[in-house]
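From the pipeline queue, job 12 of 40. The input is one protein chain; the requested action is below.

Action: predict structure.
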Amino acid sequence: MKPAPVLQPFLAVILGMGLGLLLVLPTGENPFEAYRLWLTAGFGCVGSGGFCAIWTALQYATPMVLSGLAAMVAFRSGMISIGQFGQMVCGAGMTTFLVSTLPGEPWLRISLGLLGGIMAGGIWSAIPGALRAYLNINEVITTLIFNTLALAATGRVSFWRIPTEVRFTPLIPTTKLTVAFFVAVGTAVLTYLYLWRRGAGLEIRMAGQASLFTKFAGMNARWAVVRGMFISGGLAGLAGGLEVLAVHHRFVSSFSTIDQFDGIIVSLLGQLHPLGILFSSFLLGGLRLGSLNGLQLQTAVPRQLSNIIIGLMMILMVMPTIIQWLKVGTVKKGA
């Protein structure tokens, strides 16, 4: 019996973690003890000062939420975009440039800097979208190439630092959790309202799910794809801008709390829905933190093992779709 769509990500996580126990055995560590240290370092409250890793997990989750939303919007518009990293770099570069050079009050420079980051990421993503919509050039190739081009395009701000007066202040001492997390949550809510409660959002979803429907309904499917890719890149650009203002306080082209494809991972684990992305981002953020402070520092288990376990979760998550594709292919061959 096929699992309900809502239960599918939970089953993928549970089975992935279960299979991961077998992978810990060759290291000589007790798998259950290694898991206890891993999860405690990622989600627990330990130490005499009552330090809670949850706050740092939320900080890790912040860019994942936005990059996951970016991947989701691209998927919903029928595009397989793997360019969230390059769009984040563009957003970080433009935000760094604007807050460092514009005059005015700090709040105005922050607002204009983040707006510039959104525009930079959006334009960087819309170009591959237009190439696919109007010239049928594969977006996987172009977004991958644009990741590399983004590094070259932001070279001039490589060593710039964020002025002190526009840096975000931590909400909790000894952490880097800032208002950026609430910006990410609010953005998830706005993204949901736009895609599921607005006609323009319906066009984007229909362009990806039923392109013929958009044609006969009088919608401009090509423009909907370009618009969806612009929004996707804008979300990733916002993630990059928030990272430099809240965490790194300088321009970076390597976001230490997020891998290049984490946006795609949390998007799929979250069932391509903003609410699911919020939960999967928190889960992945805690697992990334725990692998660093738990597995790597307190056991002989390499932290790369956590990436393998996360990969298992992804494989299990998409397994029903793969099986369905194989069934369809078998039926076609039989016909």
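Job complete. The longest strand covers residues 45-46.
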